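queue> pop job 88
queue> type: inverse folding (structure -> sequence)
queue> payload:
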């Protein structure tokens, strides 16, 4: 699956950057946040969003090659904001949709539960 590969590479890229920062505390915090947000990325990423953020990754790498920490930080912040915007828009769209009814086979019989 191309999307799963993309998301895996995206995670690897980000955690390589975070590891390079040499801040175990920040890495732990980011790891916990990623565990919460990561699964949602699997839901909201699509062909429409595929590849978004790669320009920010290129900017980060170029900045790091120039030893320009401020530019690398700026690119990272832009990348994270773009991802957050995608997640928030997807969440808002999901909330706006009417609740789906479960199929009859998935509904529980209250009488059967009482037995």
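queue> result:
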């Amino acid at each position: 699956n191309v999307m799963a590969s993309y998301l895996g590479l995206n995670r690897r890229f980000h955690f390589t950057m975070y590891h390079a920062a040499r801040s175990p505390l920040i890495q732990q915090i980011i790891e916990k946040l990623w565990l919460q947000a990561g699964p949602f990325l699997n839901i909201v990423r699509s062909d429409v969003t595929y590849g978004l953020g790669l320009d920010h990754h290129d900017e980060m790498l170029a900045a790091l090659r120039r030893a320009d920490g401020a530019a690398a930080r700026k690119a990272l912040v832009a990348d994270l904001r773009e991802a957050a915007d995608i997640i928030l828009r997807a969440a808002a769209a999901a909330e706006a949709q009417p609740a789906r009814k479960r199929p009859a086979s998935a509904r529980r019989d209250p009488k059967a539960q009482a037995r």
